[in-house]
Amino acid sequence: MPIQAVVFDAYGTLFDVYSIGALAERLYPGQGSAISTLWRDKQIEYTRLISLSDPDGEHGSRHYRPFWDLTRQALRYALQRLGLPLSDAHEEALMAQYAQLTAFPENHGVLQTLRGRGMTTAILSNGNPEMLASAVQSAGMADLLDHVISVDGVRQFKTMPVAYGEVARHIVAEKSDVLFVSSNAWDVLGATWFGFTTLWINRQGLPFETIGRRPDHTGSDLRAVLDVLGLVA
Amino acid sequence: MPIQAVVFDAYGTLFDVYSIGALAERLYPGQGSAISTLWRDKQIEYTRLISLSDPDGEHGSRHYRPFWDLTRQALRYALQRLGLPLSDAHEEALMAQYAQLTAFPENHGVLQTLRGRGMTTAILSNGNPEMLASAVQSAGMADLLDHVISVDGVRQFKTMPVAYGEVARHIVAEKSDVLFVSSNAWDVLGATWFGFTTLWINRQGLPFETIGRRPDHTGSDLRAVLDVLGLVA
């Protein structure tokens, strides 16, 4: 078993970004699902536009803004797009919830098992360090992760190779000896192209992307990590 | 009036990509709108993932594939995602329609006026040359455009600067003396960052993106080009 480290995406993989739909629904009845979907899509789109538009900036993209700021701007866009009133109080409530997203239920057990077997565990996320620290803390995962790695150090976002490359600054291992785990098909696609061994957590039973290489492994929840590694919980 | 050339985005700006929804609706009753929206979103997403994942390839992205191929792969994804049956016949019908999209009704008149005043006109598109030639031909615009410029030459997609930079290989003008016109807010965002003078054709009354600089001009259909240039039709 050559895998030496398991690196997780954060938002969507360890933390349930759509769990925020319930609060959105209370604040904007009938629109919770639309808000959370549009908010998420726009948040990701902004990371891409920023990296694409200055891919070879010497210190990252000159358009770089921390993911927390982009998350806020994406929320504002989503509300405007849906014709819903902006409100400082609602915005603060939703952003506060975003700082403390629900973790998927099986995640703690999986991380505990990995740690118990001496496996190196880490997050690699588009999130900036402050928001990641908050999320990890409130999910009670601080003791279960060796490294919480942010793309903020390179001021470019996934799926740029320089973003995945941040893992190597913290974990000494061949790319193919790193198991990269994400629920986001696009992230798995980029990580596979980058050279990581990949596991797609396909919680919603979606088709995989129709370009690129298939991920090395696919599972329906985070317990698939243990299957891939031949571990039992 | 310093503007020396007007450069148009193609898909969504000159050609109505959602016009294909009617055929999609006939082939998949009740799903036409969902297909055309998901198809378009995925098509654009694939261009971004390809460029992001190899931004500094010597000859463009090593993952580059012509836009026509990505359009087909995006269609397949959309149908799978919606749980609809793939069918060679339906796929060919939809792709054939995509090769001959409807032009927005006011576009001919605007292009004719521009040409009549001696303005240089061009397309800059993610589309590959073959599909652009087909679209331009079937829309009857071949005599109305000085240049049909594809990003295929650099094997990277908008909004990468190298893609917008292709304009300079065909048109000698300062960036700010080029009026870049697009219905796609993300394209206008990228073009504004690149340095073009920009006009966003906001046909659907959408909010602009909440990051980046506002476009220099905004209009509700292509006739806004004439307003910006101080021309009357």
Summarize the topology.
2 copies of one chain form a homodimer.
Chain A: E1 5-8, H1 21-27, H2 32-52, H3 67-81, H4 88-98, H5 107-116, E2 120-125, H6 129-138, E3 147-150, H7 161-164, E4 178-182, H8 185-194, E5 197-201, E6 217-219, H9 224-229
Parallel strand pairs in A: 1-2, 1-4, 2-3, 4-5, 5-6
What does this structure look like?
The structure is a homodimer of 233-residue chains. The first copy, chain A, has 233 residues and is an alpha/beta fold. Chain A has 2 domains: 140 residues, 3-Layer(aba) Sandwich (Rossmann fold); 81 residues, Putative phosphatase, domain 2 (DNA polymerase, domain 1, Orthogonal Bundle), CATH 1.10.150.240. The first copy, chain A, is 40% helix and 12% strand. Chain A has 9 helices and 6 strands; from the N terminus they run βαααααβαβαβαββα. The first copy, chain A, has a 6-stranded parallel β-sheet with strand order 3-2-1-4-5-6, with helices on both faces. In chain A, helix 8 links the parallel strand 4 and strand 5. In chain A, helix 1 packs across helix 2 and helix 2 packs across helix 3. The relative contact order of chain A is 0.17. The mean pLDDT of chain A is 96. Chains A and B meet through helix 2, helix 3 and helix 8 of A and helix 2, helix 3 and helix 8 of B.
